[in-house]
Every structure is written in C-alpha cells, then in structure tokens.
C-alpha cells in the first residue's frame, strides 16, 4: 500500500515542479545565502566606530586633514587641529587613516601616508601646546589625549 501511495504522489510532485518552471515562479526563488537587496544590513562594530569618528570631524576640517595626510598639499589650521585633537582623538584619527589607506587607491603610498598622518597629529598637538613642531614624528603618538580636554568652567 505504501508503494502505491508513493507512486501516485510522484506524478503530482513532478507536475507541480514543471508548473513552477513553466510559469516562472521558480525564478523568484533566491538561491544564495546573501540577504535580499532591500534587507537592512548590520554594520560591524568597526564600521559603526568609524562613522562615529567621522561625525565628530567638521566638514571643512575633514577636507583639510584628509588632503594633508593623503596628498600632502594642505595644512590643518588651528581650528581643525583643535577639532582633531579634542573632539576626534588619536584613536579615531589613526583608525580612519588606516581604513582609508587600506583602499586600492592608497595602498602603494602606505609609508608616506602614515608619516604624514603622524606629522599632522604632532603639528596639531604642538600648535595647541604652543610649542614648535619637533623633528621626531613619534614624539606625541603616546601622549594622553585627555590632556587637551580642558574646560575652564569645570573648576567654578
């Protein structure tokens, strides 16, 4: 009896599959494991961190700092240095630089980009401390970033 039921069900399944193929319904079935294009994607922690870092950087300052680091054709002004050191911070500065130079456009210039990144950071720290920039690009890389977060109203 079980074989009779199996054999009678088999033509129905074959007819159903043929109908799906013939009507094109099966073309809408997604075969990949990728999420559908309209589905929201979850950002990784690092992507969220970078977006948060970027929101702290004022637009004109972002341009100044970007061109200073990646092309070496601009200098960050005092306002942008203040923004970079006090609001963006060393960790965000380093992470955004590393993320951008990982792209194909900048991979070949990694060494010069890192040197300019350190130079921009050190120049900004120097300008905020009112001391002349030093020749050693590694001097301020280990400085406590909280040293610049001074609010004169905290002591009132």
Number of helices: 6
Shape: globular
N to C succession of SSEs? HHHHHH
Q: How much of the residues is beta strand, in percent?
A: under 5%
Record field, number of beta strands: 0
Low-confidence stretches: 145-156
Sheet/helix structural class: mainly alpha
Mean pLDDT: 74
- The percentage helix is 55-70%
Distance between the termini: 93 Å
**Gyration radius over CA:** 29 Å
Question: Can you tell me about this structure?
Answer:
It is a single chain. Residues 145-156 have low confidence and may be disordered. Helix content is 57%, strand content 0%. It has a domain at 45-147. It has helices at residues 2-23, 45-56, 59-70, 78-88, 90-101, 110-129. The longest helix has 22 residues, at 2-23. With 156 residues, the chain is mainly α.
Brief rundown of the structure:
InterPro entries: Prolamin-like. The chain has a domain of 103 residues.
Chain-wise SSE layout:
Elements: H1 2-23, H2 45-56, H3 59-70, H4 78-88, H5 90-101, H6 110-129
Helix pairs in contact: 2-5, 3-4, 3-6, 4-6, 5-6
Organism: Medicago truncatula
Protein name: ECA1 gametogenesis related family
Pfam families: Prolamin_like
Could you name the key traits of this structure?
156 residues; 6 helices; globular
